[in-house]
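Standup notes
- DV: blocked on the single-chain target, sequence here:
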Amino acid sequence: MKKNKIKSMKLESGSINWACKMLVLSFVLSILLSMFSQSFLPSLGIIFSIFTICTFIFLAVFFDMISVAITATSKEELDEFKDQKGYDNAIKLFQKQDKVCSFCGDVVGDICSILSGAGGVSLIINLNLSNPSIVIFLTCLVSSLIAGITIFFKAIMKGYAIKNADKVILKIGQITELKRKNKRIKKTQKSVDKNN
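- DV (later): unblocked, structure below
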């Protein structure tokens, strides 16, 4: 009984520490990205504003898909891909299930959703409209449209992530494996260049 209580206390303290880290991270990222959106986005043209909005919507949907997939998958499902590339990284992600879910869904996904809305505001600013009523109407219309599109694609990708959770996490594992290999190759190349 005492051992179980100690384990539960450790888990609770670990989750609280993680929540505090996510609070600080999301706070800092929100400030930095808000400064970026207020100073940089209004100076973009209409085409770049639309591109920025689409990029943030894509990132919000993509990371939300990872968040859903990591909670929907199981170790038994992932074990079916033991012989495939990315399995080891997929298992590592699964072992940090709560942290991956929190980071992808709550931090990255939500911040990208907010920034896509900020991109919508910058789009209206770039239209240089003089009528305040039209500005208010278009701002509400664009914000609603962005929110609707984001929710629409999130709904589609959530359904896909639930049905193909193991494949999604394996694919993410393969992507992270490739990145690590590229980093190792770059490090070895730098060490070789220094020796030469």
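- Follow-up: The chain has one domain: 2-187.
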